[in-house]
Design a protein that fits this description.
The chain is mostly helical. It has 9 helices and 5 strands. Residues 12-81 form the HVO-0163 N-terminal HTH domain.
Length: 186
């Protein structure tokens, strides 16, 4: 094998490795892809562009992250998977699946997050048509899953990384510290 053949094999193998990772982890975001494969960001970007041009993967940016999918995922599935890559959003949906339609305060308490954190995630969950905020005659809100079976299927596809879990837990910690009243004397 000459040096050109070896280089082509390495490029092809790297591209195949990235494509396999996207197939196995639909909705994986760019940073997780580079961490998981232990590749340089520029190298991953190069191969992702090639995979996109050949229609082997689809890129979608949502909520500050760029996610990657195989073309067989539709718009709703891509949005759902992007949101479900966040631990707190998953916890909210699991809480609703376990308890049925619930008031926001019950969900915030059940997931152990501040109401402001819940609302941030609810905005995205509503936008991606994973749940609805139904209002009764007294204008009280009840959170209801819009597609429970499909959402359960999407949840099974998402396995969060340790890095994703740590970021979500750090956000919860900071949010909790901001919500707690301070009784410090100066």
């Amino acid at each position: 094998m000459n040096s050109c053949s070896i280089e082509l094999y390495t490029i092809s193998e790297t591209r195949d490795q990235i494509a396999r990772q996207v197939r196995g982890n639909p909705g994986i975001h760019f940073n997780e892809l580079t961490r998981t494969l232990d590749l340089a960001p520029g190298q991953v970007q190069y191969h992702l562009r090639k995979l996109e041009r050949s229609d082997d993967i689809v890129e979608e940016s949502l909520y500050g992250r760029t996610h990657y999918y195989t073309p067989d995922y539709g718009t709703w599935e891509r949005g759902a998977l992007a949101v479900l890559r966040r631990e707190t959003a998953r916890d909210i949906l699991v809480c609703l699946m376990a308890n049925g339609p619930s008031a926001p305060n019950e969900v915030a308490e059940g997931v152990d997050i501040a109401r402001s954190t819940l609302e941030w995630h609810l905005d995205h969950l509503v936008e991606q048509d994973l749940l609805e905020k139904e209002r009764d005659a007294r204008n009280h809100v009840t959170l209801v899953l819009t597609h429970p079976e499909e959402t359960a299927r999407m949840l099974r596809l998402v396995e969060p990384s340790i890095a994703d879990r740590l970021v979500d837990r750090f956000m919860r910690l900071v949010d909790g510290l901001l919500e707690e009243p301070t009784n410090w004397e100066y």
